[in-house]
Amino acid sequence: MRARRKxxxxxxxxxxxxxxxxxxxxxxxxxxxxxxxxxxxxxSAKNELMKDNADAIEWMTILHEGDVDKNGVxxxxxxxxxxxxxxxxxxxxxxxxxxxxxxALLHDVVEDGHASIKEVEARYGKDVAKxxxxxxxxxxxxxxxxxxxxxxxxxxxxxxxxxxxxxHNRS
Length: 171
Description:
By secondary structure, the protein is an all-alpha fold. Helix content is 69%, strand content 0%.
């Protein structure tokens, strides 16, 4: 009885092996499938952002020169990362991409004391100055009051920039 079970088990294993080998051979013979299209490489997104917004990037990096985050990383990397993400979200939300991206690049320049709203307006216009103004926290307000003001502004670019800013600050 044991001999019969052993033989049956061996035959079953051989049969499964044969089927597995057949499956491997058929998979090897299949033509490679075209890879699904994926998102842009982050480096190309950064390059595209830099080309389209070179002046705002240059001004922002000059204004934040010497600033570092709590980890010692140059601070200008934060607005750049926010702007890259904002570009994608602004497109999806049907928001003026240029306005949202430039506002993201400059979202901390007034709050950090490097520029005034009037300087932002002189360089980039009223719309950018308005969004940057909404994003500039009044030190008299609590954090929750500040967030409520951004939401109450109904400025889609400001809400998108703040959302991405919060996400990036948490990472």
